[in-house]
Amino acid sequence: VIYLDYQSTTPCDERVVEAMLPYFVHNFANANSEHILGKYVAETIDKIRADIAEMLGVVSQEIIFTSGATEANNIALQGSVRYLIDHYPKTKRVITIATEHKSVLETVQNLQSIGADPFILPVQSDGLIDPDSLKAALQVPTILVSVMAANNETGVIQNIPYLSALSHEYGALFHCDLSQACGKVSEKIQLRSWGIDLASISGHKIYGPKGIGILYVKRKPRVRVEPLFYGGYQERGIRSGTLPVPLIVGLGKAFSLFQNEGNEEIRRLASYKRFLINELQARIPQVKINGSIEYALSNCVNLQFPEVKALDLLARIPHLCLSTGSACNHVSMPSYVLQSMGLSEQEVLSSIRLSFGRMTTKQEVVETVHDLYSAWYDVRKGT
Ligand code: PMP
């Protein structure tokens, strides 16, 4: 079996698991407890929080641990909009883009129930936002703009510093879902200098454990978010609940691994991607890349295969773990991300997404090219 679906999730790095283990049985205390065991765990978490904050160019108090990016997106969007609707009831618009993950799109759409006015911005055929269309949307007083840094189906990378500056010019807050960009872009993610007010990150996309993520909430000037649920006032009251210490330790290790090894990994995966595209296009010249080629992650690609249905192709190569769209979307539904980039239904249904990661070997890439090509050849010939 060859795993080519690192955009949907990554395996835990073994070094992450090793770092986590002592925190299940030995250092198991509640980080809020006053006793020596609790204090030890609290100090460990403080150190991890500070290290992660430093890597992201922010300060410790701005980092909130959540159960993942879905929760971080929900708190960022619902929490900030609830506060602002209460305090500035005339400003209602919330803007996001058509290719966002469902945890942003559905949340924004549901903000209508608390009086907000959702506005879904279309994207261009390369998946990028046209800044003029954002400018036009911002002519109506806007609470918040939410744009993902990198797309989970196409890998297309938006110009976040530019879009956040534009949003601020019109007085709107800026939220960014960094789930797919974190650990995968060669440029260092710097939340403050990128002009981000609220951000979301997921542990299981960066070789950390599932069930942990980060919400960044800017402190100066202070961005207010109301909690989605109430409890013991952990995480500054923004996210109550006993801290999942082993998961936080794993997340911290995952961050330090990509901090040390990330650039080398990105270069290696970029060379695999170039190889795969060149080799496939040499065999099947009509293979098309969906989305911007220039502004895209170096570990993934979304490809359109001529004259075949992607599902027929995948049925021939069950040992290749890849997909036709996001795992978070219903499999039988054609990708709304590709549809909103203007692809026809037939083009959408002939597309697959493929992503490499830390454990991918060159040999696997060579086999993938070979197997994809023979499957395409057989399906097209109807053999
Ligand atoms: N946003 C994006 C862009 C994603 O790709 C994902 C995971 N598919 C999420 C949010 C949700 O992350 P989590 O699984 O941590 O809730």
Automatic annotation (TrEMBL):
What keywords appear on the UniProt entry?
Iron, Iron-sulfur, Metal-binding, Pyridoxal phosphate, Transferase
Q: Which family does it belong to?
A: Belongs to the class-V pyridoxal-phosphate-dependent aminotransferase family. NifS/IscS subfamily.
Q: Which organism is it from?
A: Commensalibacter melissae
**Where is coiled-coil annotated?**
none
Cofactor dependency:
pyridoxal 5'-phosphate
* GO MF terms held by the record: cysteine desulfurase activity; iron-sulfur cluster binding; metal ion binding
- Where in the sequence is the signal peptide annotated? none
Gene3D superfamilies associated with the record: Aspartate Aminotransferase, domain 1, Type I PLP-dependent aspartate aminotransferase-like (Major domain)
Residue ranges annotated for the Aminotransferase class V domain, each copy included: 2-365
Q: What protein name applies here?
A: Cysteine desulfurase
- InterPro entries cross-referenced by the UniProt entry: Aminotrans_V_dom, Aminotrans_V_PyrdxlP_BS, Cysteine_dSase, PyrdxlP-dep_Trfase, PyrdxlP-dep_Trfase_major, PyrdxlP-dep_Trfase_small
Role summary: Catalyzes the removal of elemental sulfur atoms from cysteine to produce alanine. Seems to participate in the biosynthesis of the nitrogenase metalloclusters by providing the inorganic sulfur required for the Fe-S core formation.
